[in-house]
């Protein structure tokens, strides 16, 4: 079923309001997917983004989709093929570092809500013109961090963001304090080493801290 940009924006706004942090997950072994999802959900982070950057990503999305209480999406969605593959695997939403018309067309046609990325006023305006009032701000810290996002909020207060890229416990609160920030995305809640070692309780601890931000 197709979705309009407005319907997509409503969906992504609800998604971004579920918890202050969306974990960005790079999964190398699909066997880690279900326990990792359980650990993050137990810590209070139900919205999970699995980046399509590893061969295991689609299997990981499929495995995580079976975990109760979670909402699993695909990150690094770049092409219409990615949109199809993510949806087939069970992804309920897509996240992209930027946005192209081809990608947005594919998501709308497939009815896969997308959180499209913007890094400048012109990119944010272009998305807004098409009906996307909820956007990812990427790569957040490298392009000026919370002060840059606050400045964008002056002329563009109607755009709400999920900043991602270089965010961790030390700076997440600076972003979350802004009126135009709904939530932040970050990989810090699922460090590679803890995932490799299967230290799920430690990951639940990090999730709990993030959920309390
Ligand atoms: O490719 C995408 O769609 C992404 O979502 C990229 C991520 O935003 C960053 O890779 C997360 O950045 P860190 O939290 O600094 O590790």
From TrEMBL:
What's one Pfam family here?
Aldolase
What does the UniProt keyword field contain? Carbohydrate metabolism, Lyase
Q: Which GO MF terms are attached to this record?
A: 2-dehydro-3-deoxy-phosphogluconate aldolase activity
Q: Does the keyword Cell division apply?
A: no
Enzyme Commission numbers on file? 4.1.2.14
Pathway entry: Carbohydrate acid metabolism; 2-dehydro-3-deoxy-D-gluconate degradation; D-glyceraldehyde 3-phosphate and pyruvate from 2-dehydro-3-deoxy-D-gluconate: step 2/2
Its top-level enzyme class, in one word, is: lyase
Give the reaction(s) catalysed: 2-dehydro-3-deoxy-6-phospho-D-gluconate = D-glyceraldehyde 3-phosphate + pyruvate
* SUPFAM superfamilies referenced in this protein's UniProt entry, alphabetically: Aldolase
* InterPro entries for this protein: Aldlse_KDPG_KHG (IPR000887), Aldolase_TIM (IPR013785), KDPG/KHG_AS_1 (IPR031337)
Coiled coil regions in record? none
| Subunit-level organization | Homotrimer.
Q: Which family does it belong to?
A: Belongs to the KHG/KDPG aldolase family.
**What's the protein here called?**
2-dehydro-3-deoxy-phosphogluconate aldolase
